[in-house]
């Protein structure tokens, strides 16, 4: 019965494709038999994403942002700091005067929300961080109760554009948070010449690391380069042990040897409120997808196996088009590319079209269709024949594979996507699968 319905759809909705479609796939003498259909049944949902592995990435997230559609995102991070040299001895610490202790964070150009001032807090971690362990966006660590930010210096206005001048040098944009100098003396200077400052194994056993968060409800989420040398904790001090005062500094490094990860709290609102108590909601007629383990879109192709039931039916190409709602309004935080993944047990897997060096799927935003284009030819071929049994796809902004390989940077970019039934009058506004075939 389903096969009959499908064949009826083919006969009444097929068109002759543009001549460029299928070239290199279909022999030139067979072009007259090539047709297209765009009536394959698709069912779309918005689903929750429990967590995302966020450790050891080149960039981390910090700050709070209240999205009017998706709700509030709170991003914070945990990081180990390390000695920049071994056998650290500051000499007679009675003659050392700490001028300042600064947490410097090199800012990436992108941010989400506003750049208005935020109130930042820094705490000492009270449990070990391990480089060979996995950490997830919903995971927390124990911290000590003292806020290490210097009184009166917790509010800082992020600036992702302008350089900063440090000791006469123009450096890339930074977020600089002043920390308590008494803490610097009590915790760092007090260990001068002791085993705790001999090497990093001893130091990280003594001082576990820092936890950084924003206490502002609606500001912006910032992207911080954790592998840039400018991201560090710097103690500026005057050494009065000699005949003349020596103004200098000591750097506690944050680098690729420092275990770190970011934590996300995401509070859903409006259309997404049902996801507080249930796993998914059907397209209404829109679906939603957001970076950072927020929400993602799931698409099912419930009758796709019927494409294999018609004798002589050959799929040459399958292109999925996903338009966005209100393209002009979506622009500020719209992802330049969306990713497709297959459900795999409790994880996800690349789709067959992406199992190559150059990632053939595409998924980039296309102004012509006011949405995203994906070439999923192999996936459709393999699901139609039953080689791949699960006919579902996830549409997402980021995942561990993309983040770890630098395909995308961490963020909370988001898109409101048109589902399969947004418009009965204008199919170009709908999520759809265009199948180029011979029969």
Question: What can you tell me about this protein's structure?
Answer:
This protein has 439 residues and is mainly beta. It folds into two domains: 2-50 and 268-438, no CATH class; 59-258, no CATH class. 10% of the residues lie in helices and 38% in strands. The chain has six helices and 27 strands. It has helices at 2-13, 181-188, 200-206, 327-330, 377-384, 400-404; strands at residues 34-37, 43-48, 59-67, 71-79, 82-83, 96-113, 118-124, 155-156, 164-166, 169-171, 174-179, 210-214, 220-225, 232-239, 246-253, 260-267, 280-282, 286-290, 295-300, 314-323, 339-344, 347-350, 362-366, 371-375, 392-396, 414-418, 432-438. Strands 3, 4, 5, 6, 7, 8, 11, 12, 13, 14, 15 and 16 form a twelve-stranded antiparallel beta sheet that branches. The longest helix has 12 residues, at 2-13. The two termini are 19 Å apart. Mean pLDDT is 87; it is low at 1-13 and 18-26.
Over all CA atoms, what is the radius of gyration? 27 Å
Number of strands: 27
Distance between the ends: 19 Å
Share in β-strands: 35-45%
Largest pleated sheet = 12 strands, antiparallel
Mean pLDDT: 87
Give me the number of helical elements. 6
Low-confidence stretches: 1-13, 18-26
Estimate the global geometry from the Cα principal axes.
elongated
Helix content estimate: 10-25%
Please, how many domains? 2
């Amino acid at each position: 019965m389903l096969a009959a319905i499908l064949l009826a759809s083919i006969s009444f909705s097929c068109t002759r494709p543009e001549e460029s479609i299928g070239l290199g796939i279909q022999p030139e003498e067979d072009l007259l038999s090539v047709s297209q259909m765009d009536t394959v049944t698709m069912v779309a949902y918005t689903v929750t994403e429990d967590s995302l592995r966020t450790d050891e990435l080149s960039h981390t997230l910090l700050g709070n942002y209240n999205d009017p559609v998706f709700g509030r995102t709170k991003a914070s991070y945990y990081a180990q700091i390390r000695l920049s040299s071994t056998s650290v001895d500051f000499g007679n610490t009675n003659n050392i005067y700490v001028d300042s202790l600064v947490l410097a964070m090199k800012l990436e150009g992108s941010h989400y929300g506003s750049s208005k001032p935020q109130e930042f807090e820094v705490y000492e971690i009270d449990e070990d961080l391990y480089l060979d362990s996995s950490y997830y966006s919903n995971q927390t660590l124990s911290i000590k109760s003292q806020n290490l930010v210097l009184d009166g210096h917790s509010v800082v206005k992020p600036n992702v554009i302008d350089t900063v001048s440090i000791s006469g040098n123009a450096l890339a944009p930074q977020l600089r948070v002043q920390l308590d100098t008494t803490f610097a003396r009590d915790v760092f200077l007090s260990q001068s010449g002791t085993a705790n400052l001999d090497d990093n194994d001893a130091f990280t056993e003594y001082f576990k690391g820092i936890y950084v968060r924003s206490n502002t409800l609606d500001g912006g989420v910032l992207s911080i380069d954790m592998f840039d040398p400018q991201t560090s904790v710097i103690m500026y001090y005057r050494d009065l042990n000699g005949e003349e005062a020596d103004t200098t500094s000591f750097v506690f490094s944050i680098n690729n040897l420092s275990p770190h990860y970011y934590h996300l709290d995401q509070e859903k609102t409006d259309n997404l409120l049902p996801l507080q108590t249930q796993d998914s909601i059907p397209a209404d007629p829109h679906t939603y997808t957001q970076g950072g383990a927020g929400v993602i879109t799931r698409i099912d192709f419930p009758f796709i196996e019927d494409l294999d039931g018609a004798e002589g039916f050959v799929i040459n190409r399958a292109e999925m088009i996903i338009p966005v709602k209100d393209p002009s309004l979506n622009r500020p935080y719209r992802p330049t590319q969306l990713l497709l993944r297959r459900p795999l047990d409790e994880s996800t897997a690349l789709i067959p079209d992406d199992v190559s060096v150059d990632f053939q799927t595409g998924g980039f935003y296309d102004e012509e269709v006011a949405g995203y284009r994906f070439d999923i030819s192999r996936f459709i071929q393999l699901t139609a024949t039953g080689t791949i049994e699960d006919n579902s796809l996830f549409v997402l902004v980021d995942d561990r594979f993309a983040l770890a390989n630098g395909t995308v940077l961490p963020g909370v970019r988001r898109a409101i996507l048109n589902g399969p039934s947004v418009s009965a009058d204008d199919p170009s506004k709908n999520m759809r699968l265009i199948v180029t075939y011979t029969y």
